[in-house]
Amino acid sequence: MAHPSQLGFQNATSPIMEELLHFHDHALMVAVLISSLVLYMISAMITTKLTNTSTTDAQMVEIIWTILPALTLILIALPSLRILYLMDEVENPHLTIKALGHQWYWSYEYTDYKNILFDSYMIPTTELQPGHYRLLEVDHRMVLPTNSPIRTLISAEDVLHSWAIPALGIKTDAIPGRLNQTTFMTTLPGIYYGQCSEICGANHSFMPIVIESIPLKHFEAWSTMMST
């Protein structure tokens, strides 16, 4: 999760987030190189004593400064399009969960099981247990098996919400009357925190998202307990 004075992204805990971090570093290096080149050219033009007032055109220079930006855009666009394709791909999910946004809490339904559905409310500050995070802990976590493709169907009952977990690289809008979907896979057991990322009213900051990723055998035991 995030920590004080953090400047970068949270550590990646899903393949998609790892790809997003690599793309961020790639695009940042391109931006640094372009900025350095422009700064050097500006400095050279300001400090030089050479002048040439008789030049009316320079077709070779114009060709170069047209082709180079085009190649740079292609260098950025290709990995970006690849990640967009990977984020939209849905291939044989092991589990499907429906997440429904309300003012101001989330409800979850495990569509592969008959009786697993619950509401997830933020725990008030006065009721927090030692080790819990203020404004981030909920009374019922969304429990998932580790290393399993998960499909999440996301919608809202009243106004716009957004289901977002930064460590997993997920941010999907919850729109009333519309069903969006996203897929992800957690690579490590742990607890991942997120929050609604669409301003949805007075208690927008008080509807956190908590995912608990556990090994498959523990998830099977949990699902059996919840179904009975």
UniProtKB/TrEMBL annotation:
Signal peptide location: none
Summary of the function given for this chain in its UniProt record: Component of the cytochrome c oxidase, the last enzyme in the mitochondrial electron transport chain which drives oxidative phosphorylation. The respiratory chain contains 3 multisubunit complexes succinate dehydrogenase (complex II, CII), ubiquinol-cytochrome c oxidoreductase (cytochrome b-c1 complex, complex III, CIII) and cytochrome c oxidase (complex IV, CIV), that cooperate to transfer electrons derived from NADH and succinate to molecular oxygen, creating an electrochemical gradient over the inner membrane that drives transmembrane transport and the ATP synthase.
Chief location of this protein within or outside the cell: mitochondrion
All residue ranges annotated as the Cytochrome oxidase subunit II transmembrane region profile domain in the record: 1-91
Cofactors required: Cu cation
Membrane topology type: Multi-pass membrane protein
Family: Belongs to the cytochrome c oxidase subunit 2 family.
This protein's UniProt keywords: Copper, Electron transport, Magnesium, Membrane, Metal-binding, Mitochondrion, Mitochondrion inner membrane, Respiratory chain, Translocase, Transmembrane, Transmembrane helix, Transport
Catalytic activity: 4 Fe(II)-[cytochrome c] + O2 + 8 H(+)(in) = 4 Fe(III)-[cytochrome c] + 2 H2O + 4 H(+)(out)
GO cellular component: mitochondrial inner membrane
Protein name: Cytochrome c oxidase subunit 2
Organism from which the protein derives: Blanus cinereus (Mediterranean worm lizard)
Molecular function, one GO term: copper ion binding
Annotated Pfam families: COX2, COX2_TM
A single GO BP: ATP synthesis coupled electron transport
Lineage of origin: Eukaryota, Metazoa, Chordata, Craniata, Vertebrata
Record domain Cytochrome oxidase subunit II copper A binding: where: 92-225
Subcellular location: Mitochondrion inner membrane
Residues that span the membrane, as ranges: 27-46, 58-78
